[in-house]
Each structure stands twice: as structure tokens, then as C-alpha cells.
DNA sequence: CCCATTTGAGACACTCGTGTCTCTCCTCTA
DNA sequence: TAGAGGAGAGACACGAGTGTCTCAAATGGG
């Protein structure tokens, strides 16, 4: 039977999210295949990580597409975006810790493109008067990444319910912890 | 001359924050000492990581102390806490990615104690009517960790100014991105 | 100034993960 | 049913990183 490459990648991501230094043998076992087969699919650990990076990037971009982040109110766009990003959060948490991906010449420019779109979303919100202007769009988008990772990790640890993923992130990011008095 | 153990730890943290898989040789070079001396100070990589964990924990606890998080308004306490936590943010970012620290039996219970104090702070804010109650204290404290890491990383990358560290985190965490209408 | 201590540099063996190969077994298809 | 293709299991050598040791040089105190 043919190996489901995508499935292998998802299983690998599931393991690597919580154990970023996992052995190729452990990855193979997590995916339910042998190390030999894993190596037939991905020529080495580096290729596996690159494939995971590509998968994560693709998922993020498709989430951005599906969320129509250029339409309607920026705050609603952020909510839709986070909801669409949820399935990719675990993978994102792993990639976030693979800081070696983001330094050096071979850096994937896809992240820069994605980042530009996120920044543009927050900037749009500012220009529309929805968002405050004393928090830079760059910081807001970076904070969103951080909250996605925190949320994924916290849910994995069982400290918060997975159904609260989207609301936890969006409510905190948009509304903050302080109670509204209006 | 005697090796400044604390200095070595800080240099190591500075390197490991941005390159978590750095070699012991690289760590030694970053600290300006030889690999032999590094090994004399810390018996193996594991011991080094443990020492970094201890240092990070100590710094966090001292920040919690200095911030007097049980006094005054909770929101102000959070601001003081973040300000005190700033020097430890880089180290925290490294420890955050060392997820192996937080699983298994040898887990340092100091983190649980620290976490309890953070959670208590947010709960106090809720009970005082300062914070909204639809975001759990657990999530708020976890989100704070995530924002600390994001901020440290973003500053390291030069995407935001280091002087905005505290305000970026506290304003987002407490006030959120949406502009107040009050 | 001399001696004790400590550091740096290098060599060494060892471990662990990796990449590759072979061989066998299974499954699907003609 | 026979054959082809793919997967699993295991063996193997290789490289990187590690921990340890030795020896020479430097430092600092008495």
C-alpha cells in the first residue's frame, strides 16, 4: 500500500510539536511506518523539516485565503483568520521553535509574504480607526503568532479546552484582559 | 582567573535563545572560554540546561517579588511584573522551546509555583472586577508567557524597538488591539 | 620571585543518530 | 496463480557531538 505522504507529515508534526528533538526513528514510529520508509519519502531529517515548513506555509496561506482578510471589518477578519488557523497551530508551534529556519540564506521567502499580509491586515484596521495606533502592525502580527503557539501548547497540556481556542486568542488579542467599562 | 559562572550562563542563554541546538563548543566560544572549562563548570549539556532553567526560575521569582504583584490594582501589578521580567525574557524564550523540560518526572516544580502566583494575580484582577471573567486566569498567564517570548524574539530580530518591550506586552495583554471608545 | 591553581588547546574513545543497503514478506494486479 | 512493486526489519559504516584526559601556558597569591 502506498504511504500517505501528507498523513506522515501530520503525524510527524504532532510528535515534533511536543518533542522537537525527536529521533527519525521516533518520527517514523509516530507515523506508523518504518524508518526505512520514512527515509524513502523524505531524504533525511532536513528534507522532512523543509516539507513540514512547506506544509505549514501552505496551510497558513490557505487559511488567509479562506478567511478573506481583506474584506469587512478588520476585527472580524482577524476572528475568521484565527479560526482558519486553528488546525495549523500545532505545526506552527513546531516551526516557531525551529529558529534555524529563519536565519541563513536558504530562508523561505514565503514567510515574508505571509507576514506582509498579516501586517497589512492590522494596518488596515488601524487606518479604518478600528485598532489603536500605538501598537505597531508588526508587533500585532508577531503577537498573534505567539498567542497561536501558546494556545496550541496550553490545549495540548490540557490546561484549557480546545473549543476555546479561537475565542481565547481573538478576545485577548482584540479586547485585552481589562474589563470594558463602556 | 576564576570563571564567572553566572556570566557564562548569561552568554550561553544569549546564544541558545537564537540557536537552541548550539554545540557545546559554540556555547563555550560564545562565553569566551574553552570547551574544557565549560565542562568543568557544568558537567555536560544537561547540567548546563538545568542550570539555565534554575537561573530563569530564580530571575522570574525575583521579578515576581520585586513587582509586589499582590499589591495595588492588578493591572498595575501586571505592568510592574512585565517590566521586571524583561531582562529574563531571552532566557525565557530559550526555556520555552526546551519543551523536554516540562515533561517527565524530573520536572522542576518551581515552574508550578511560579505559575500559581501568576494565575493568582489574574484571578485577583477578576475578583476585583478589573479583568473580564470570560478569559481564564490560566490562559491569561500562559498568554503572558507567549507574549514575553514573542516580544523577546521580535526585538532580537530588530522588528520592534527594545524600549517598547513592556508597553507592547502590557498594552496588548491588558487593553487589546481594538481602540477604546470610552 | 616562586609555587599553586586554573585555563586553553588538542587528542582520544565513545555514543547516538543518520543514511544506506539488503533481504524478506506482504499486497495488489494482470 | 505468478510476478511486480512497495514496505518492514535489521545490519552496517559514517559523522557529529560529547565527555575525558594530558600537558603546556598563564594567572594570581604568598
From TrEMBL, chains A, B:
- Give the HTH tetR-type domain ranges: 2-60
Portion annotated as DNA-binding: 23-42
Which is an annotated GO molecular function term of this record?
DNA-binding transcription factor activity
Q: Does the keyword Disulfide bond apply?
A: no
Note the InterPro entries from the entry: Homeodomain-like_sf, HTH-type_TetR-like_transc_reg, HTH_TetR, Tet_transcr_reg_TetR-rel_C_sf
Give a yes or no for keyword Transcription in this entry.
Answer: yes
Q: Keywords assigned by UniProt?
A: DNA-binding, Transcription, Transcription regulation
What name goes with this protein? TetR family transcriptional regulator
The scientific name of the source species is Kribbella pratensis
Amino acid at each position: 500500500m502506498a504511504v500517505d505522504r501528507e498523513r506522515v507529515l501530520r503525524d510527524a508534526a504532532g510528535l515534533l510539536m511536543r518533542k522537537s528533538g525527536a529521533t527519525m526513528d521516533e518520527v517514523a514510529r509516530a507515523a506508523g511506518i518504518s524508518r526505512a520508509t520514512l527515509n524513502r519519502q523524505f531524504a533525511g531529517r532536513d528534507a522532512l523539516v523543509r516539507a513540514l515548513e512547506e506544509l505549514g506555509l501552505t496551510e497558513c496561506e490557505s487559511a488567509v485565503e479562506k478567511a478573506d482578510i481583506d474584506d469587512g471589518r478588520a476585527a472580524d477578519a482577524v476572528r475568521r483568520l484565527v479560526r482558519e488557523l486553528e488546525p495549523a497551530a500545532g505545526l506552527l508551534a513546531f516551526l516557531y521553535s525551529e529558529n534555524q529556519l529563519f536565519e541563513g540564506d536558504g530562508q523561505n521567502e514565503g514567510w515574508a509574504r505571509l507576514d506582509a499580509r498579516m501586517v497589512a491586515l492590522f494596518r488596515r484596521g488601524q487606518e479604518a480607526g478600528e485598532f489603536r495606533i500605538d501598537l505597531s502592525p508588526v508587533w500585532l502580527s508577531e503577537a498573534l503568532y505567539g498567542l497561536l503557539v501558546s494556545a496550541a501548547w496550553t490545549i495540548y497540556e490540557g490546561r484549557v479546552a480546545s473549543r476555546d481556542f479561537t475565542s481565547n486568542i481573538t478576545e485577548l488579542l482584540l479586547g485585552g484582559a481589562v474589563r470594558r467599562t463602556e
